[in-house]
Amino acid sequence: MPEMIVCFKEVVDERELKVNPKTQELMTEGITRKISDFDLNAIEEAIRIKEMHGGRATGVIVGLPECKPSIKKALSMGLDRACLLSDPAFAGSDTLTVAAILAAAIRKLGPFDMILCGEASTDGFSAQLGPSLAERLDLPQITAASQVTIEGNQVVAERSLDDGIEVVEASFPVLLSVTKEINKPRLATLKQILAASKKEVLEWKAADLGLSTDAVGLQGSPIVLKRVAAFRMERKNIRLEGTLAEAAERAIRELLREGVL
Amino acid sequence: MKNEEYRNVWVFSEVKEVALELLSLGRQLADSLGVELGALALGNGAEAQASEYIAYGADRVYVGQHPALSRFSVEPYTDLIAGLAGQHRPEVLLIGATKRGKELAPRVATRLGTGCAADCISLTIEGESRALQVERVVYSGNALAMLTYRNRPQVATIPPGIFQRREREENRPGEIILAELPIREPRTRVREVREKEKGSVNIEAAEVVVSCGRGLNHPEDIQLIRELAELLGAEVGCSRPIAADLQWLSEDHWVGLSRHKVRPKLYIACGISGQIQHIAGIRDARIVLAINQDDAAPIFQSADYGIVGDLYQVIPALKEAYQRIVKRES
Ligand SMILES: Cc1cc2nc3c(=O)[nH]c(=O)nc-3n(C[C@H](O)[C@H](O)[C@H](O)COP(=O)(O)OP(=O)(O)OC[C@H]3O[C@@H](n4cnc5c(N)ncnc54)[C@H](O)[C@@H]3O)c2cc1C
Ligand SMILES: Cc1cc2nc3c(=O)[nH]c(=O)nc-3n(C[C@H](O)[C@H](O)[C@H](O)COP(=O)(O)OP(=O)(O)OC[C@H]3O[C@@H](n4cnc5c(N)ncnc54)[C@H](O)[C@@H]3O)c2cc1C
Fold first, then answer.
1. Residue B277 beta carbon below 6 angstroms from any ligand 2 atom
2. Does B63 map to a domain?
C-alpha cells in the first residue's frame, strides 16, 4: 500500500493573460487561478494507484494562502489530505528553493514510497522541479512518465523521450514526473466535493520546516526573474476575400511573392 | 566560494549534434568573457568525440569513460558532471535541452547548490558583473522571461536547433583530459527501449509545413493534407489532438508547446483553432497561412494570410491555383 506525495502548483489561467500596452509586460494580477494542467494528471495518477493498491496520497503545495480553492479541488478529486506551505518569505523562490521547501515538508510528513509531480508547470514550464527535488531527497527519478504500474515495492514506468519510449523500473522510494498523456483527470462528484471540506489540511510556514527566511524566497534563490514581457506577434493578418477560386489564387500569388513557395 | 573564483564556460549534451551547437554558443560567451571553453564527452566513443569538439571550438575536453556512463542515465551523469564542475568551477555550464538534458541539468545544479534556467533562447553576458542574462519562453508560449543569476556556476539548458554550429577547424589546438571520479550505479533500471513510431519526419527542419487539426472529420482525410504537402514539397504537421487523442498521425508530426517547434518559411494551418499552445510551436515560422471556417477563430490573429472557408473546398482550390499559376509561369 504505497504512501504517496503529490506535488501540485497553482498557476494563472494562461487563456486570460493580458498585456500592459504601455510596458509590454504581462499582467498576471486579478486573473483566475487554477491547478497547473499536468499536476491534475499527477493527482489523477495517484488516485488511480490508490484505487488499485490502496495506500494514501498527500498533496503538497508551495503557494499563496489564497490557493485554498485549488487545494479543495485536489481533495475533491480524491487526495486524502493536503499540506499548504505558505509564508511571505517564500515569495520569489526559484526551483532550487521551492525544492528545498518541498523537501523539508516531505521529510516532516514522514516515510513515503513515491513522489508524483507534473512534468512541467504551465507558467514556468521548466520541468526542473522534479529532478531538483529528487536530488535534494537523494531519490532515483523517472521523468516524463506516460504510463505507470506498481509491482510489489517497485514502479515500472514508460517514459516518453525525444527518440522513443524507455521502460524503466525503480524500487521505492522514487520520484516520478508525469506527462499530460498519462491519463484523463476526473471531475469530482458533488458528494466528493462536500466530503473534501472534512479532509485534513496542514499549514506550515518557514519556521515550522526549520528553514531560515534568508535561505528561501528572493534572498535564497540563485535565479533572479527580472522581467516578463509579452511576445509580440508580428503577423500581417490579411484576409483573402472573394470567391473560393479568387481567394486561393491570391493566396498562391502572395506566397510566391513572399518567396516562401 | 566567491563568484570571482569561477572561470570558463562549459558545455555538455549527450547528443553530438546538439553539443556542436552548444560549442558555437559557448565559444561566443567564452570569448566575450575572455576565458576558455570546456566541453564534456561521456560514454561510448567519448575520446573520438573529444577531438571533434576541439575542432568545433573547445579548448579543453573532459572525457569520462566509466562503464556506468556507456548509455545515458541521470544519476551517474550527475555524479560525473557535478563532480567535475565542483573541482574545476566553471562560471557557465550549458546543457542541451533534450528530455534527458532537462532531467540532468536541474539535478547537477541542485547538487552544486546553484540555479538553472530552462530552455534559454538568448544568452548574453552583462559587462561588469560578468553575469549571464538569459531569455526563456514562459506562460505556455505567451511571454518571454528575462532572468539572471546570483551564484556560480550559472547553469542553463538550451533547446536543440536554436544555435548554428561553427565551421569545423582542422588542427585547432586543444587539450583532452581523462576524468576519473567516483560514480555510483543508477537506481533505475532500463527494461526495454522502443523507438517511437514514426515516419522519419523531421518537422523541425522542414521548409514548408502543411498542418491539420480537428477540422478534419475522418482519419482518411489526412490524404487531402498529404496531397497538398506533396505538391508544395512540404512536410505534414498537426495539432495535439490529431497525434495524442485521435492518433491519426504519429508524434513526430505534432507541433506546439509540448512537442515540436517548427521554423519553416511557410506554415499552412488547416482546421486548427490556434490555441496558444499550438501557436507556441510556430512562432518562428516566417509566413503563416490559415484556413478555418470560423471567421472568429484565434488562428487568424496569428496568421499573415487567412482564408475563411471549409478546408474540404479550400485545399482543392489551392492545389488547383498552384498548379495553374506555377505551370503557366514556368
Ligand atoms: C515566468 C517565470 C519563469 C521562471 N523561470 C525559472 C527558471 O528558469 N529557473 C528557476 O529556477 N526558476 C524559475 N522560475 C521560478 C519557478 O517557477 C518556481 O520555482 C516554480 O515553483 C518551479 O518551477 P516551474 O514553475 O518551472 O515548475 P516545473 O519545474 O515546470 O514544475 C514541475 C512540477 O513541479 C511541481 N511544482 C512546481 N512548483 C510547485 C509548487 N510551488 N508547489 C508544489 N509543487 C510544485 C509540480 O508537480 C509541477 O508540475 C520562474 C518563474 C516564473 C514566474
Ligand atoms: C499543457 C498543454 C499543452 C498543450 N500542448 C499542445 C501542443 O503542443 N500542440 C497543440 O496543437 N496543442 C496543444 N495543446 C492543446 C491546445 O490547447 C488545443 O486544445 C489544440 O491545439 C486544439 O487543436 P485543434 O486546433 O486541432 O482543435 P480545435 O480547437 O477543436 O479546432 C478545430 C478548428 O477547426 C475548425 N474547423 C472545423 N471544421 C472545419 C472545416 N471543415 N474547415 C475549416 N475549418 C474547420 C474549427 O473552426 C476550429 O477552429 C496543449 C494544451 C495544454 C493544456
1. yes
2. yes
